[in-house]
């Protein structure tokens, strides 16, 4: 009887662990959706995000390109984007520009950049 009770308690503990993992997954999924929504809201026209990388240490790296043509394009547009990412109060903070360089592909010149944010 005691052995059966221990086995039942072990199964119950295993089931409780599974429930906790499912709850944590749902929370992280909801948080990730919120972060992506904030990134989309902060991204102006003229900027194309080419990569998102979730770093395991609570950091998100965004790579993208910004058009240098048109009004408000170029470095000012990238700086404004970084500022808006950092200003988003729900999910992103400490946004900083890691690198930026002008690249000419054929007739078009763009700024390729990388931004790092804390989650």
Automatic annotation (TrEMBL):
Q: Which InterPro entries match?
A: PilN (IPR007813)
Pfam families for the chain: PilN (PF05137)
Q: What is this protein called?
A: PilN domain-containing protein
Q: Which organism is it from?
A: Tectimicrobiota bacterium
């Amino acid at each position: 009887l005691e052995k059966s009770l221990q086995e039942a308690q072990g199964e119950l503990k295993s089931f409780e662990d599974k429930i906790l993992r499912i709850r944590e997954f749902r929370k992280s999924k909801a948080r990730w959706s919120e972060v992506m929504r904030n990134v989309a809201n902060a991204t102006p026209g003229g900027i194309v995000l080419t990569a998102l990388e979730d770093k395991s240490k609570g950091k998100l790296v965004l790579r993208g390109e910004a058009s240098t043509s048109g009004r408000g394009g170029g470095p000012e547009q990238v700086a404004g984007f970084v500022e808006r990412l950092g200003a988003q109060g729900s999910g992103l903070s400490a946004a900083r520009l890691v690198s930026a360089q002008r690249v000419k592909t054929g007739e078009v010149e763009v700024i390729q950049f990388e931004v790092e944010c804390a989650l």
